[in-house]
Amino acid sequence: MHSTCIGVALSIFAFLTTGAQTPVASNPLALQILRQSLAALSPNVAVQDVTLSGSAHYIAGSDDETGAAILKATALGDSRIDLNLTSGPRSEVYNLSVSTPGGQWSDQDSTPKPIPYHNLLTEPGWFSPVTAISRRLNSAAFVATYVGAETLDSQNVQHIAVSQPPPAIAKDFQLFQHLTQVDLYIDPSTFLPVALSFNIHPDENELVDIPVEILYSDYRWVNGQQIPFHIQKFLNNTLLLDIQLDSATVNTGVPSTTFGVS
């Protein structure tokens, strides 16, 4: 892992060294809704990996570009995004299924830049609700909380918050829980995810929140799975990435080398 990532990782680990915390259990209703959502997304097959292909519209300040997109994610917490835009390629890779998790991104110069540890703690496969939910239901490390019935953009949703408490002891339990929290908004009639949100943070300051919101729509059946073919990513309440899929494949056995981090 890059030295910057190690430094931030150690600073966060310091929060885990003193002060015992009472274990927290998931809310039964929250777990029930997540299971119903996973069953709606993939009723017959456990999804291990997805590969999505389509077009992307990328907007960052005055940078407004279009191009092709390929997105891959696994239920173990790995993901890769490759955009081939007008000005050149952009990529983002997360590898969380190894003992030392890491991530990196690159733009037109193709030079890998590390993603700090505190920005590895939410959801790398934000574009794939089925792997995001599978990962959380299949791990005892996550705690689900039922926030309540809400309205999101005039649509009724069930709001579930999922976070990862420190494994055993913590000096600042609330900070670590906050850094790992992902919020899911699920349609109460179809149980399909409508949105997912979390916070990222500046490289050198995990205490500053930058909100990220993902919107899912245009669900289609692909080999027995429901996959959203329209995905929008908002950064700090501004549209950053608009993806329209052309195709999707599931359980093709994406090799682990796909998610290699230098």
Could you explain the architecture of this structure?
It is built from four helices and 13 strands. The chain is of the alpha+beta class and 262 residues long. It has one domain (3-254): Lipoprotein localisation LolA/LolB/LppX (outer membrane lipoprotein receptor (LolB), chain A, Clam). A 13-stranded antiparallel β-sheet has the order 6-5-4-3-2-1-13-12-11-10-9-8-7, sandwiched between helices. A hairpin with a 2-residue loop joins β7 (143-152) and β8. α2 crosses α3. The termini are close together.
Count of discrete alpha- or pi-helical segments spanning 4 or more residues: 4
Beta content comes to 35-45%
CATH superfamily: Lipoprotein localisation LolA/LolB/LppX
Number of domains: 1
Output the keywords:
262 residues; alpha+beta; outer membrane lipoprotein receptor (LolB), chain A; 13-stranded antiparallel beta sheet; 13 strands; 16% helix
List the helices and strands and how they pair.
Elements: H1 3-13, H2 28-41, E1 49-60, E2 63-74, E3 78-85, E4 88-95, E5 102-106, E6 113-114, H3 129-137, E7 143-152, E8 155-163, H4 173-180, E9 182-186, E10 193-200, E11 210-222, E12 225-235, E13 238-250
Antiparallel strand pairs: 1-2, 1-13, 2-3, 3-4, 4-5, 5-6, 7-8, 8-9, 9-10, 10-11, 11-12, 12-13
In short:
It contains four helices and 13 strands.
